[in-house]
């Protein structure tokens, strides 16, 4: 079948007209916009590049009208439009393939980029670079590429597509470094849900939409389990403030004051950090079986998670806040029926006796394994570069790699609160330590702030893995 332009119109086996050629043509011909045609090094295929700068390109200065002739100018974290063959044009984010840790490659002389799609259950695939262009906002897209968007804006997937575009728009508003975290933590969708709940409405994703999208993407590889790498480090609710800008005034008016209060917390606030870090610690295997977590001191108040809950699902309002004397200042909503973490007495020992700014309690398998291999009263770590990340509280400085780090082990007890006596004794006997191991149970680690506590916990965890290896292999 021939059209006036001479374009060969192909029909897919589903009877849908192929839009691949139209996509390039539409980009080239779009009214009032310049397009820069560049050739990729090997396949020489023409890549139309939008001259409309998105917030992302403005802030990162990655894409511009004067994009040069490189094979791949997309970087990890770029927000893009992708038009994979017969599938609808969809917003996505450039992120490395978790299996190979690369975000672009040459395949059969074609440059491919690895994309995760917005609002689509973390579906991802490798896609030709000439099927991608930088993300422009929804209005520009609808105005300038009407043919590309007609299908999605009229079909049953319209609302899903709209949410994907909103998510992409939201991601362009935040720093590139935070985008991947925000993407994997579903920050945007979380807020939509929060807003909808405030209106006593559930987010309505129609089944038919899901079915249709499943059919559309059924040839794409399914996403593997989310991995706790630095790339997809989850962040529960940072940037909530920015996100509300996407809601119209009606929406905002329907959010209760209580919720607005949480939307306004900065991302360094414990009500944001504790849920975010608990989620990370869960993925690290540190807070399994509901136990463990982190407490943070902020402006002379101590923030503590609830006890016995799925720590990776804690919400900002779930936290207990008390002063340094243990007097409650803020409580979670009473209907949640939460009680304060059983670890509170130990957390308080670290705050009062060591002037900690944050305390982490982990239930990692490594700690328990190491205890099984170490019947003595303490663990000694030598000859590891990683110990430079551990703080010597007695000397007030970080260890050198030729020093020995000694961590006391106290015996476990029936209840966490019964550990207080031996915990205090350990602090007295080991003034240099920033951690106490509880045999066959876990470990408490503290630092002057949450970053220090987290970094040290990572260093201990790493060192324990090496020690287990050494002990098992009699090295
Ligand atoms: C399986 S958890 C047993 C109790 C425990 O060790 C613990 O750390 C409890 O912490 P929580 O913050 O859930 O009270
Ligand atoms: Zn515990």
From TrEMBL:
Pathway-wise, it operates in: Amino-acid biosynthesis; L-methionine biosynthesis via salvage pathway; L-methionine from S-methyl-5-thio-alpha-D-ribose 1-phosphate: step 2/6
Query: Which reactions fall under this protein's catalytic activity?
Result: 5-(methylsulfanyl)-D-ribulose 1-phosphate = 5-methylsulfanyl-2,3-dioxopentyl phosphate + H2O
Q: Which cofactor does it need?
A: Zn(2+)
Pfam family for this entry, one: Aldolase_II
Explain how, and how many, cofactor molecules are bound: Binds 1 zinc ion per subunit.
Q: What class of enzyme is it?
A: lyase
The annotated regions of Low complexity compositional bias extend over 47-62
So what does this one do?
Answer: Catalyzes the dehydration of methylthioribulose-1-phosphate (MTRu-1-P) into 2,3-diketo-5-methylthiopentyl-1-phosphate (DK-MTP-1-P). Functions in the methionine salvage pathway, which plays a key role in cancer, apoptosis, microbial proliferation and inflammation. May inhibit the CASP1-related inflammatory response (pyroptosis), the CASP9-dependent apoptotic pathway and the cytochrome c-dependent and APAF1-mediated cell death.
Q: Know the name of this protein? A: Probable methylthioribulose-1-phosphate dehydratase
Q: Which organism is it from?
A: Cinara cedri
């Amino acid at each position: 079948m021939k059209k006036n332009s001479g374009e060969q119109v192909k029909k897919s086996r589903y009877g849908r007209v192929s839009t691949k050629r139209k996509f390039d043509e539409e980009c080239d011909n779009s009214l009032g916009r310049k397009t820069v045609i560049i050739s990729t090094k090997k396949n020489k295929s023409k890549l139309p590049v939008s001259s409309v700068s998105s917030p992302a390109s403005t802030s990162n200065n990655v894409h511009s009208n004067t994009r040069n002739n490189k094979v791949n100018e997309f970087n990890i974290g770029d927000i893009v439009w992708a038009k994979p063959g017969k599938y609808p044009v969809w917003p996505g984010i450039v992120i490395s393939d978790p299996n190979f840790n690369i975000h672009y490659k040459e395949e059969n002389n074609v440059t491919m980029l690895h994309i995760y799609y917005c609002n689509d259950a973390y579906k991802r695939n490798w896609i030709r670079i000439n099927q991608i262009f930088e993300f422009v906002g929804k209005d520009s897209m609808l105005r300038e590429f009407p043919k590309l968007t007609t299908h999605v804006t009229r079909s049953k997937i319209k609302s899903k597509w709209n949410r994907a575009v909103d998510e992409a728009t939201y991601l362009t508003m935040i720093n590139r470094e935070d985008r991947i975290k925000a993407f994997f933590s579903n920050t945007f969708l979380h807020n939509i849900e929060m807003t909808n709940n405030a209106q006593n409405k559930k987010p309505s994703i129609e089944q038919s939409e899901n079915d249709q999208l499943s059919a559309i993407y059924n040839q794409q590889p399914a996403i593997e389990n989310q991995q706790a790498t630095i790339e997809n480090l989850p962040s529960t609710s940072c940037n909530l403030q920015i996100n509300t800008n996407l809601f119209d005034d009606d929406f905002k008016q329907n959010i209760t004051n209580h919720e607005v209060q949480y939307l306004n917390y900065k991302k360094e606030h414990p009500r944001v950090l504790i849920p975010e870090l608990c989620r990370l610690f869960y993925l690290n295997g540190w807070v399994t079986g509901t136990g463990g977590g982190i407490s943070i001191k902020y402006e002379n108040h101590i923030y503590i998670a609830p006890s016995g809950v799925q720590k990776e699902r804690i919400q900002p309002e779930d936290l207990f806040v008390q002063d340094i004397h243990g007097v409650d200042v803020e409580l979670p909503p009473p209907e949640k029926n939460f009680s304060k973490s059983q670890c509170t007495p130990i957390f308080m020992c670290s705050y009062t006796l060591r002037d900690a700014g944050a305390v982490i309690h982990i239930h990692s398998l490594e700690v328990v394994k190491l205890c099984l291999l170490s019947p003595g009263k303490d663990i000694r770590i030598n000859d590891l570069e990683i110990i430079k990340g551990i703080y010597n509280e007695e000397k007030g400085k970080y260890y050198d790699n030729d020093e020995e780090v000694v961590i006391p082990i106290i015996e476990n007890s029936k209840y966490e609160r019964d550990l207080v006596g031996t915990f205090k004794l350990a602090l007295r006997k080991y003034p240099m330590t920033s951690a106490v191991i509880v045999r066959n149970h876990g470990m408490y680690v503290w630092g002057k702030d949450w970053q220090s506590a987290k970094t040290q916990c990572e260093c201990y965890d790493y060192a324990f893995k090496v020690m287990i290896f050494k002990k098992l292999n009699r090295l």
